[in-house]
Specification:
Layout: H1 2-23, H2 30-35, H3 37-40, E1 44-58, E2 61-67, E3 72-78, H4 79-82, E4 93-94, E5 97-108, E6 114-126, E7 129-130, H5 137-165
Parallel strand pairs: 3-6
Antiparallel strand pairs: 1-2, 1-5, 2-3, 4-7, 5-6
Bound molecules: zinc ion (ZN).
Residues 76, 105, 108, 110-111, 114, 116, 118 line the site of zinc ion.
Length: 166
Protein backbone atom coordinates (compact mmCIF):
# COMPACT_ATOMS: atom_id res chain seq x y z
CA UNK A 1 0.00 0.00 0.00
CA UNK A 2 2.82 2.33 0.95
CA UNK A 3 4.40 1.82 -2.45
CA UNK A 4 1.37 3.23 -4.26
CA UNK A 5 0.64 5.92 -1.71
CA UNK A 6 4.04 7.60 -1.96
CA UNK A 7 3.96 8.40 -5.70
CA UNK A 8 0.40 9.58 -5.31
CA UNK A 9 1.41 11.96 -2.53
CA UNK A 10 4.34 13.25 -4.55
CA UNK A 11 2.04 13.81 -7.53
CA UNK A 12 -0.43 15.62 -5.26
CA UNK A 13 2.29 17.88 -3.85
CA UNK A 14 3.64 18.66 -7.33
CA UNK A 15 0.20 19.49 -8.69
CA UNK A 16 -0.53 21.61 -5.62
CA UNK A 17 2.69 23.57 -6.17
CA UNK A 18 1.71 24.02 -9.79
CA UNK A 19 -1.75 25.36 -8.86
CA UNK A 20 -0.26 27.76 -6.31
CA UNK A 21 2.34 29.09 -8.74
CA UNK A 22 -0.27 29.45 -11.48
CA UNK A 23 -2.49 31.53 -9.21
CA UNK A 24 0.35 33.58 -7.80
CA UNK A 25 1.12 35.33 -11.05
CA UNK A 26 2.12 38.83 -10.11
CA UNK A 27 1.35 41.66 -12.44
CA UNK A 28 4.28 43.70 -13.65
CA UNK A 29 4.02 47.36 -14.59
CA UNK A 30 4.29 48.07 -18.31
CA UNK A 31 7.00 50.62 -17.62
CA UNK A 32 9.10 47.95 -15.86
CA UNK A 33 8.74 45.76 -18.95
CA UNK A 34 9.92 48.56 -21.20
CA UNK A 35 12.70 49.66 -18.82
CA UNK A 36 13.90 46.12 -18.21
CA UNK A 37 13.08 44.74 -21.65
CA UNK A 38 16.15 42.51 -21.86
CA UNK A 39 15.24 40.66 -18.66
CA UNK A 40 11.61 40.17 -19.65
CA UNK A 41 12.28 39.37 -23.30
CA UNK A 42 10.44 36.18 -24.34
CA UNK A 43 9.20 35.73 -20.76
CA UNK A 44 5.64 35.02 -19.72
CA UNK A 45 4.32 38.11 -17.96
CA UNK A 46 1.03 39.36 -16.54
CA UNK A 47 -0.01 42.98 -16.94
CA UNK A 48 -3.14 44.78 -15.84
CA UNK A 49 -4.41 48.01 -17.33
CA UNK A 50 -7.11 49.91 -19.15
CA UNK A 51 -8.01 48.94 -22.70
CA UNK A 52 -7.64 52.14 -24.73
CA UNK A 53 -8.35 53.37 -28.25
CA UNK A 54 -9.87 50.70 -30.44
CA UNK A 55 -9.37 47.11 -31.57
CA UNK A 56 -7.30 46.77 -34.72
CA UNK A 57 -8.54 43.53 -36.25
CA UNK A 58 -6.15 41.47 -38.36
CA UNK A 59 -8.34 38.48 -39.19
CA UNK A 60 -8.27 35.86 -36.43
CA UNK A 61 -6.03 38.07 -34.30
CA UNK A 62 -6.24 41.68 -33.20
CA UNK A 63 -4.25 44.44 -31.52
CA UNK A 64 -5.51 45.94 -28.29
CA UNK A 65 -3.65 48.71 -26.49
CA UNK A 66 -3.38 48.55 -22.72
CA UNK A 67 -2.40 51.47 -20.50
CA UNK A 68 -1.67 50.82 -16.81
CA UNK A 69 -0.83 54.41 -15.92
CA UNK A 70 2.92 53.82 -16.15
CA UNK A 71 3.03 53.17 -19.89
CA UNK A 72 1.11 51.57 -22.76
CA UNK A 73 1.75 48.44 -24.81
CA UNK A 74 0.18 46.64 -27.76
CA UNK A 75 -1.33 43.24 -26.99
CA UNK A 76 -1.65 40.69 -29.78
CA UNK A 77 -4.65 38.49 -29.00
CA UNK A 78 -7.32 36.36 -30.61
CA UNK A 79 -10.08 38.49 -32.12
CA UNK A 80 -12.58 36.40 -30.11
CA UNK A 81 -10.72 37.44 -26.91
CA UNK A 82 -10.75 41.10 -27.98
CA UNK A 83 -14.52 40.87 -28.43
CA UNK A 84 -15.10 40.35 -24.69
CA UNK A 85 -13.73 43.85 -24.03
CA UNK A 86 -16.77 46.11 -23.86
CA UNK A 87 -15.33 49.58 -23.24
CA UNK A 88 -12.20 51.17 -24.64
CA UNK A 89 -10.85 54.31 -23.03
CA UNK A 90 -11.21 57.56 -24.93
CA UNK A 91 -12.52 61.04 -24.12
CA UNK A 92 -16.04 59.63 -23.72
CA UNK A 93 -15.28 56.31 -21.99
CA UNK A 94 -13.30 54.72 -19.21
CA UNK A 95 -12.03 51.48 -20.72
CA UNK A 96 -12.35 48.01 -19.20
CA UNK A 97 -9.54 47.04 -16.85
CA UNK A 98 -8.08 43.84 -18.25
CA UNK A 99 -5.49 41.39 -16.98
CA UNK A 100 -3.36 39.92 -19.73
CA UNK A 101 -0.99 37.00 -19.39
CA UNK A 102 1.26 36.49 -22.37
CA UNK A 103 4.75 36.43 -23.78
CA UNK A 104 6.61 39.74 -23.85
CA UNK A 105 8.84 40.63 -26.78
CA UNK A 106 11.13 43.62 -26.94
CA UNK A 107 11.83 42.91 -30.60
CA UNK A 108 8.96 40.81 -31.95
CA UNK A 109 10.08 38.95 -35.06
CA UNK A 110 6.48 38.35 -36.10
CA UNK A 111 5.63 42.06 -35.95
CA UNK A 112 8.60 43.84 -37.47
CA UNK A 113 10.56 44.34 -34.25
CA UNK A 114 7.73 45.78 -32.19
CA UNK A 115 7.62 45.78 -28.41
CA UNK A 116 4.51 43.73 -27.67
CA UNK A 117 2.84 40.97 -25.67
CA UNK A 118 1.31 37.92 -27.32
CA UNK A 119 -1.64 37.15 -25.08
CA UNK A 120 -2.41 33.62 -23.93
CA UNK A 121 -5.03 34.57 -21.35
CA UNK A 122 -7.30 37.55 -20.84
CA UNK A 123 -9.52 38.41 -17.91
CA UNK A 124 -11.80 41.41 -17.44
CA UNK A 125 -11.03 42.74 -13.97
CA UNK A 126 -13.38 45.73 -14.08
CA UNK A 127 -15.91 46.85 -16.65
CA UNK A 128 -15.48 50.39 -17.92
CA UNK A 129 -18.18 53.02 -18.38
CA UNK A 130 -19.28 55.97 -20.42
CA UNK A 131 -18.12 59.33 -19.11
CA UNK A 132 -20.85 61.93 -18.58
CA UNK A 133 -20.98 64.28 -21.53
CA UNK A 134 -19.47 67.55 -20.37
CA UNK A 135 -21.05 70.83 -21.48
CA UNK A 136 -19.05 72.01 -24.43
CA UNK A 137 -17.98 75.59 -24.98
CA UNK A 138 -20.15 75.72 -28.11
CA UNK A 139 -23.25 74.87 -26.08
CA UNK A 140 -22.48 77.68 -23.60
CA UNK A 141 -22.03 80.19 -26.46
CA UNK A 142 -25.35 79.12 -28.02
CA UNK A 143 -27.10 79.43 -24.65
CA UNK A 144 -25.71 82.96 -24.10
CA UNK A 145 -26.70 84.05 -27.63
CA UNK A 146 -30.23 82.69 -27.16
CA UNK A 147 -30.55 84.43 -23.80
CA UNK A 148 -29.38 87.78 -25.26
CA UNK A 149 -31.75 87.40 -28.21
CA UNK A 150 -34.65 86.69 -25.85
CA UNK A 151 -33.73 89.74 -23.73
CA UNK A 152 -33.50 91.93 -26.85
CA UNK A 153 -36.89 90.73 -28.15
CA UNK A 154 -38.42 91.41 -24.74
CA UNK A 155 -36.96 94.94 -24.71
CA UNK A 156 -38.23 95.67 -28.24
CA UNK A 157 -41.65 94.25 -27.33
CA UNK A 158 -41.82 96.39 -24.20
CA UNK A 159 -40.80 99.50 -26.16
CA UNK A 160 -43.44 98.84 -28.83
CA UNK A 161 -46.23 98.36 -26.30
CA UNK A 162 -45.05 101.46 -24.40
CA UNK A 163 -45.13 103.57 -27.61
CA UNK A 164 -48.62 102.27 -28.44
CA UNK A 165 -49.91 103.38 -25.05
CA UNK A 166 -48.65 106.93 -25.56
ZN1 LIG B 1 4.27 40.38 -31.93
Amino acid sequence: MCKTLKPMMIAAVISLCFIISANAEETVSINSLVDDAETYDNQKVTVEGEAIGEVLERGDYAWVNINDGTNAIGIWMKTSDAEIIKYFGDYKHVGDTVRITGVFSRNCTEHGGDVDIHSVAIEIVKTGRAVQDEISDAKIVIAVVLLCTAALITLIYLKITKNKKQ
